[in-house]
Amino acid sequence: MASLFRVGVCRFVGKNGNNLLLKNDNPTHLLRTITSKTMMKGDRPKKPEPYPYNTKKYGFLKSLIDRTTPRMDENSKLLVVEGPIAAGKSKFAQELAKEMGMLYLPEANLDMYYINDYGFDLRTLDNEMPEGCKSFDVMDFMRNPQNMLTARMQLEIYEIKFSQYIDALAHILSTGQGVVLDRCVLSDYVFTEAMYSSGYLSKRARRKYYEYRDNTVRELLRPHLVIYLDMPVKKVMENVQKRGISWEKNSPVITPKYLECMEKVYKQEYLKTISTHSELLVYDWSEQGEVEIIIEDIERIDFDNYDYQDPKMKDWDLAREEDWNVLRRLYADQKEKLMSLFNIPCYEVPELMIEAEDADRYYQVLQSAPGMKYDKGYNVDQGDQGVLLKSSNPPRNTLPLRERRQL
After folding, report:
1. Which pLDDT score is estimated for 392?
2. Residue 24, pLDDT above cutoff 90
């Protein structure tokens, strides 16, 4: 048998190796509020240019001369928009990011995984794949939730959300620009619980999911602000029918039981837990609302109004510039080490395993696809140039900004 997930070990690098090398280790004071572009009037303090973390490593020696906090300002924050299905989160998150001058990251989805760097959709290879290795995404789940591949799909979505969250943290620390996420990895277990309560996940698969979660989320900085767009289950059902996505409106998954479980876990567990660290704003979004009003509420929040014993914002309360630099190197340069935390054997969960012969066939078919034979930048048949002069890969694998297909 062969696991669908890689096997490996991740260890943190030491944080205290360069204490004596930094003459001035005090970080730049970060402003306590968030400000919209409308309110950013007058001359702004000059900041260093955004660091090109996608193409250039930020190593230890570089960290001695390129400080992290001088790029950061009052809007160097992580905001997450949460809510039920069909609540209008994506539209709201995009408008919020635009008004705040932040980067919008669409909800992590399997299109980011199945469509490779050259635009080839790996799902078109399904006819050549063994049954247990075929693609299975949200559209397939909505049509056939009892499929044996449901557990694998949920773990893959969690892994993609984790990857995207690392990208968000790397972007903030490397460029100083804030990020608005449409849902995030920290709330993903809401879907796991809804699937489990409806009988779509086995007890063993659910237990394995939380093993992955417990092994990974501790490495992340929690968001500064979570905005929850609330909506009654009845209204969610109406919106699903109104927006008319074929695989969603006729799905056996979208039932009052499934949506009520999501709402319960969101409100009684996730929001309650995350609010111990992050600021939380909740709005009745049944009839939508005005983004400008929410922005005014955000601008009133004092993100520094806590004493040293308060758990609020503790993840972002770093006393030394070196600590900021270490985190920046972790998220920008060491993403692969963080992703290796998913290398947990799944032998006790049959639906997460495939036969060795099937795995061999899977990799043979995969490597025959356009752009999959070599690493990105080394596929001459896809137009890559200067291959003989290249000596290394890009410093990190950043997920594309790709919205999920709406068919």
Report:
1. 80
2. no
Pairing label, strands 2-3, 353-354: antiparallel
Instruction: Give the burial string for 197-231 (b: 16+ CB within 10 Å, else e).
Output: bbebbbeebbebbeebbeebbebbbbbbbbbbbbb
Residue 229 lies in a domain: yes
Q: Are 178 and 76 in contact (CB under 8 A)?
A: yes
Tokens of 95: 């408008």
* Confidence band, pLDDT 50/70/90 cuts, at residue 190: very high
**Is the C-alpha dihedral spanning 78, 106, 173, 59 positive or negative?**
positive
| Residue 238's CATH number | 3.40.50.300
Q: What is the pTM of this model?
A: 0.91
Domain count, the chain: 1
Phi/psi of residue 154, each to 5°? -65, -40
Domain region containing 154: 2-389
Quick one: pLDDT at residue 267? 97
Residue matched to tokens 């939508």: 288
- Pick the closest to residue 325 from 104, 97, 108, 17 (CA basis): 17
Is the residue at 171 inside a domain?
yes
Measured from the Cβ of residue 171, the count of other Cβ atoms closer than 10 Å reads: 25
- Asked whether residue 85 is assigned to any structural domain, the reply reads yes
Grouping H, G, I as helix, E, B as strand and the rest as coil, residue 282 is strand
Q: What mean pLDDT comes out for the span 295-313? A: 89
Q: Is residue 403 part of a domain?
A: no
